[in-house]
């Protein structure tokens, strides 16, 4: 039986990668999470699901305000949209969710987190080119590729 640095390693820290990492670490597997971006959470948190749904909710509330009379409420003067305020709200929503996707949380669960780009050497070994400019080689019995659709 071969020895590996990790039981499981996960490349990609979006929704799938974070879920697999948390489950493996909580089950007692020695787990590594590798993410190329400077923050965990993936496209959903930073660019896709969360920002778009926040924007949709904001637009829905604005539309309801403009149509208050149709709900039997007094009409209200609805000022023009300030997109800078909307952008700031989107950033606040992301910031409120981000702690749930923090490296500290996953380290507390028992996983190790590395920021960098992973390059396979063979089926069990990867070279990680860290975001700080370093490089190291690690091995894992099982690798999970959770790099999203792009």
Domains, number: 2
User: What is the chain-wise order of helices and strands?
Assistant: EHEHHHHEEE
CATH architecture annotation name of the largest domain: 3-Layer(bba) Sandwich
Biggest sheet record: 5 strands, mixed, barrel
Describe the protein in words.
The chain has 150 residues and is α/β, with parallel strands linked by helices. It is elongated and about 75 Å long. The chain is built from 5 helices and 5 strands. A 5-stranded mixed beta barrel has the order 1-2-3-4-5.
Question: Can you tag this structure with a few keywords?
Answer:
150 residues, FAD/NAD(P)-binding domain, elongated, 2 domains, alpha/beta, five-stranded mixed beta barrel
Task: Please outline the helices and strands.
Blueprint: E1 6-11, H1 15-26, E2 31-35, H2 42-46, H3 49-66, H4 83-97, H5 103-108, E3 111-120, E4 125-130, E5 135-145
Parallel strand pairs: 1-2, 1-5, 2-3
Antiparallel strand pairs: 3-4, 4-5
Helix pairs in contact: 3-4
């Amino acid at each position: 039986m071969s020895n590996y640095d990790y039981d499981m390693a996960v490349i990609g820290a979006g929704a799938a990668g974070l879920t697999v990492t948390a489950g493996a670490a909580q089950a007692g597997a020695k787990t590594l999470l590798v993410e190329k971006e400077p923050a965990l959470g993936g496209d959903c948190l930073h660019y896709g699901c969360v920002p778009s749904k926040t924007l949709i909710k904001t637009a829905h509330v604005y539309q309801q305000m403009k149509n208050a009379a149709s709900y039997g409420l007094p009409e209200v003067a609805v000022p023009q949209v300030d997109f800078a305020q909307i952008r700031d709200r989107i950033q606040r929503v992301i910031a409120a969710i981000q702690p749930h996707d923090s490296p500290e949380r996953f380290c507390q669960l028992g996983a190790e987190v590395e920021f960098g780009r992973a390059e396979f050497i063979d089926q069990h070994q990867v070279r990680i080119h860290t975001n700080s400019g370093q490089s190291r080689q690690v091995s894992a019995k099982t690798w999970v590729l959770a790099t999203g659709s792009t």
